[in-house]
Design goal:
Blueprint (H helix, E strand, L loop, with lengths): L9 E4 L6 E3 L10 H8 L3 E6 L2 E6 L24 E5 L17
Antiparallel strand pairs: 1-2, 1-5, 3-4, 4-5
């Protein structure tokens, strides 16, 4: 099963200021590459986390973008704007119930 992400619940973290909720344009299910590049100011890369994914500017450090302290709390040095996209958590399947009398 592939991982699914809740793009309409994404959060944009600026190097300074408060994070903001962002959504894909036109009520799309996910962002297009052009939209992501606009938000992060350059070429897109991502880092998978247990609870979601970080969309980052892969050349942020090379472009001398400021360190993003808020988004760097995951143990990475991240530069410029960073988008957090939460993972859609699938509910655990119901346990199979056996009737011992019918076995």
């Amino acid at each position: 099963m592939s991982e699914q992400y809740n793009w309409p619940s994404s959060i944009l973290y600026h190097p300074t200021g408060d994070p903001i909720n962002i959504k894909p344009i036109d009520d799309n299910e996910s962002f297009g590459t052009d939209e992501l590049e606009t938000f992060i100011g350059g070429p897109v890369d991502h880092i998978k986390l247990d609870n979601g994914m970080l969309v980052i500017n892969e050349k942020g450090k090379e472009m001398d973008l400021p360190l993003n302290d808020m988004a760097s709390k995951n143990g990475y040095s991240l530069y410029g704007n960073v988008i957090f996209v939460p993972k859609i958590i699938q509910p655990a399947p119901e346990p199979v119930k056996f009737n011992i009398k019918n076995l």
